[in-house]
Amino acid sequence: MSEEMASAxxxxxxxxxxxxxxxxxIGVDLQRRVWGYAEIDTVPDQIFIVARESGGQVLGAFxxxxxxxxxxxxxxxxxxxxxxxxxxxxxxxxxxxRGVGRTLKLAQRDDAIxxxxxxxxxxxxxxxxxxxxxxxxxxxxxxxxxxxxFYGRTSSPLHGGLPTDRLVAEWWVRSARVEELLxxxxxxxxxxxxxxxxxxxxxxxxxxxxxxxxxxxxGVRSQFERYTAEGRAAVGFEFDLEQGSYVLEPYED
Length: 253
Fold this sequence. Notes:
Number of helices: 7
Shape: globular
Strand content: 25-35%
CATH superfamily of the domain at 13-189: Gcn5-related N-acetyltransferase (GNAT)
Strand order of the largest sheet: 1-2-3-4-5-7-6
CATH architecture of the domain at 13-189: 3-Layer(aba) Sandwich
């Protein structure tokens, strides 16, 4: 992995691998500052070291000398295929929506391609509509798996006490789909499309009425499990004032 990697569009921001043992505390500190994790839910610095030494990725984002984000990925295997599992990407709130997260993901992609790795996977909350748009539309990932309550219920206020249902993003980093979307081109719409709709105010509902939010989550889970069992994948995401919609269509590798 190169010592210095792609710069974000914000001047003064750079991405570099975290190599030294002393650097690994950056990821621990940022977990607490970004997500408010309790000690029991925080990934310790020893795991960052293991990820680095076992073929994963540990990247830091810096504004001048200030650590503002990180990405942590593990080496993984599906059958005989090696891939990277991107476990965490975090950016300090005051630096979000400034291109830092996307630049961390692109640095992960550059490193994967340089090592001959075609696939990066990660999980994300299906109710986080902004993340869904980013993953499917900005990066070109696809989703074919839904994991109910993947991490169990956690102490993080971001989870709102809900089961930690997760979608698995598959980012085929050298695919034509990804290349086109990163170049700003929209792929052609497929056939037999269906949509899974989620209220735009789902996070407010989670705070004000957790029972209703969990009912919505259960419905989303049921639809994803049905459609993916039929051979569909989520390949797009649409917004309007009232809702966000996952777009699913038949999908083959």
